[in-house]
């Protein structure tokens, strides 16, 4: 059953991106989301909360009201209400307004602290932004194609971290900061990913030798995910161009390194990426 | 001589992965291994050991008994007992149950501490997990193909680390933490792999200048293993697809970037990887 | 209107790089720029400023006078004065001499400190150096081709950092150094880029577990920009060689992996890169 | 003039690697070099020097004598003495024995310390090892092909470091550890290469924001050398195989992804790399 009247118009504005009104709505919505997220970030600064607590509180409810209206409007004008509510973005839209209302129920002495923590969950609003970036598909598809290899890779890294963590626990022991095997594994992950906080460091010569080995292994291992992703990405990049259509003549099937349409000679630089289902 | 009766059935369950019973056994075994490894990790936390030492001790022996029975069953039903016992996994299976029994012999005052250290060796059980991941072959083959280049690369890195470590020892000296050349080499490895713990840092302007050079070299060097692995991985990826068989018509010989079988047009997405001997 | 007389000669010397005089001028100019930048760097060292302040001050004005004369000469002999003044390098040339003159107007008690800060802006002179490196085009073109993908990548990284930063703020809290969400986001960026200063570190087991996850995600994510740039660079590298002309016969259209000209057999090693508009 | 008698035999043993004696000599020499380098490393440890100083001193002179004999023998049996002495390895061989003799001349109170510092130069003996690894050629050739791009890349990184270093000096200032612009540049290099010692860290919100930007730029920049090296290495890898000869029929010209000789079907796995001059 096609939508009619106000519901159809609202659907075009809120869900659509083709009409000027729909585009304008999206820009305003993204700006509002960014502002509300910025508000949560600033409200977490102790000194600002003490001084501008009332303003933060008022703005908090202003944004909550705004997003509630938006959520209800989305449900009202959705083509299939049930599937919207249980879709990924339907759940995210709901989670974005939930915390403020939850703070009303759990009132009491610790009210302010609780609302501050719950408010943080509103960050999930940021996830909405992803919807507006269509070029992310290529990256996501590359990562998805490589999912099995990435899983194997992470399993190997974890096994290496557990073994090296245990060895370091025996060698260095609690008196040098390696208080338990889980802590040693944390140290190994910090080291093998080349983060290197320096909160825990080996002090015995043997520990430093094993740490050096861990680092050199990590150095080599860092190449593996890069290799996996690069190989998949190069493959997807070539395929995207092959499937793309020329802006001038509309025909596809170009080579991966083609610069001009082989049918009409039109420059292919800003060709339309093909969306797949 | 083919196996018969109970031995044949046990062999299918323990070593095989084709029958439902064999699959079920593998899932239970992996879960048990993960649980026993988790136990070792938690038992190393001082405060937990003090409180739940008895439970850890009991569970420790429960898992040891379980893995002992499994090890004996594997020997009993193996097609070639000798080759199983001396195979990689045969040795790992043996090492996984050894520490607990060793702790019985070396009793005395330091009993508890010793058993804790020996217990850590049980981590090798985790290595069993690798057996269940068949996709690791591609990664291992890529690394194996590149073994000579990786060796040359590591030799060069070590030579650079020894030279820079010696220079830093002369420039900074023991009073800034560079107590000996081995320690300076440890610092150079920490720096060139971009880990950067910060437990030892240069304080003189000249030392900071040489450190900057070390980092920029490390920055460039990090590209080399990535390049090696990526080049090999891209090669292996293409070859794997070339050797793969179509699910529909069973014919192989597809191009590296093929999406559909060129013989029957069937989608190739989840093709079977070819295992090589 | 073509330039004549002294103006034409000056134009060839200052803007041109084909005549011996033009090449000599460029070498002298680059050396002067490097010297003046080095002067700003050294003058910022407290102890040197106290001792050699007068010399720094004199050299400062010497370089300012030199670059002022150069700037006026550039305007005088430019083919199109207006377009030079508002071009990127015209603005940079102007910004390079501005700070010293501004220091004359804002005299007073804080004179010395102000001039020191303004002087730092002179660093932009270094940007002039880029003009002399023509090979940078390939790198810049590769990055430009990948601009949309890089933007998507950075957006995703920022979203991940905001979410993980918020979670760490709740888990670790102000008493472990995570004083506010912005600070936690700073920590997450430090961690996910594998920098790992160690000024803020997680102390609770849960915080360390989440930190480990952050690092492993960062480890995988580091592969994405590498994959993007490598794919684009390999594409541009092949295309550059295809467009390049043989030194011997002047013909183009060679394969990406060609070592010798396919028309005359001349070695292609140091072929001229093609500049595109 | 061809060599004869003892000189010819010595030349084959010392410079050659084809005869059993030549191979045996190389293995012994490499082992001796590694031992003498290990000696220098251990002698730098304060406590070991105090206890075993005499043994270190004796071994030091034993190795010096050995290498002196070797150096003289090399000069005696070289095909072209002049070109050997001034070749890279001729100079390295000379530098490896020089420090011990220099220590004889500069005797006195600081004798022990001086000899220890000079001894460090003996590390250059390690460089000899490179000669024995022929597979390094591919890596070196790849890096050489990319030399111009790597130079452009390093120039850009240095310009970015100088600009960000100056900005951080203004923003954070001496009271937060950014004592001068050179120190700030050192911090920027530590940060942009993702080393992150943590000896200097930003404390103001603005400084942390700029530091975050620096890290994210460094994160992206790390992709560029990887892309350059990978592209060159993939190219060289393909070319090496193309130039390689089959072990069975001796014919070359195979495809980059060939696994078997296209002339006789022999497996190509361990083909001989072609050495180029």
TrEMBL record, chains A, B, C, D:
Compartment(s) of residence: Membrane
Record's keyword annotation contains Amino-acid biosynthesis: no
Database matches in InterPro entries: Ion_trans_dom, VG_K_chnl, Volt_channel_dom_sf
Domain Ion transport, residue spans: 23-235
Transmembrane intervals: 24-43, 55-76, 96-118, 151-171, 209-231
Membrane topology value: Multi-pass membrane protein
Major location category of this protein: membrane
Assigned keywords, A-Z: Ion channel, Ion transport, Membrane, Potassium, Potassium channel, Potassium transport, Transmembrane, Transmembrane helix, Transport, Voltage-gated channel
One Pfam family it belongs to: Ion_trans
PANTHER family, A to Z: POTASSIUM VOLTAGE-GATED CHANNEL PROTEIN SHAB, VOLTAGE-GATED POTASSIUM CHANNEL
Protein's recorded name: Ion transporter
Organism, scientific name: Microbulbifer salipaludis
């Amino acid at each position: 059953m096609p939508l009619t009247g106000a519901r159809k118009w609202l659907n075009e504005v809120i869900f659509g991106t083709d009409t000027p009104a729909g585009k304008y709505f999206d820009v305003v919505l993204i700006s509002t989301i960014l502002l509300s997220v910025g508000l949560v970030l600033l409200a977490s600064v102790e000194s600002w909360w003490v001084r501008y607590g009332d303003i933060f509180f008022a703005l908090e409810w202003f944004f909550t009201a705004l997003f509630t209206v938006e959520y209800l409007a989305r449900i009202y004008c959705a083509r299939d209400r049930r599937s919207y509510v249980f879709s990924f973005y339907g759940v995210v839209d709901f989670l974005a307004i939930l915390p403020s209302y939850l703070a009303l129920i759990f009132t009491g002495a610790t009210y302010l602290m609780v609302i501050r923590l719950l408010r943080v969950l509103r960050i999930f609003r940021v996830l909405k932004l992803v919807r507006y970036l269509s070029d992310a598909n290529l990256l996501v598809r590359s990562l998805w194609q490589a999912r099995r290899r990435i899983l194997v890779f992470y399993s190997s890294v974890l096994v290496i971290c557990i073994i090296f963590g245990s060895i370091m626990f025996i060698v260095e022991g609690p008196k040098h900061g390696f208080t338990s095997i889980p802590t040693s594994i944390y140290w190994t992950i910090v080291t093998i990913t080349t983060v290197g906080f320096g909160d825990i460091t080996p002090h015995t010569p043997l520990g430093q030798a094993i740490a050096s080995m861990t680092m050199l292994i990590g150095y080599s291992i860092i190449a593996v995910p890069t290799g996996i992703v690069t190989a998949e990405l190069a493959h997807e990049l070539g395929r995207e161009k092959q499937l793309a259509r020329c802006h001038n003549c509309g025909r596809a099937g170009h080579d991966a390194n083609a610069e001009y349409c082989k049918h009409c000679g039109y420059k292919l630089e800003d060709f339309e990426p093909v969306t797949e289902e």
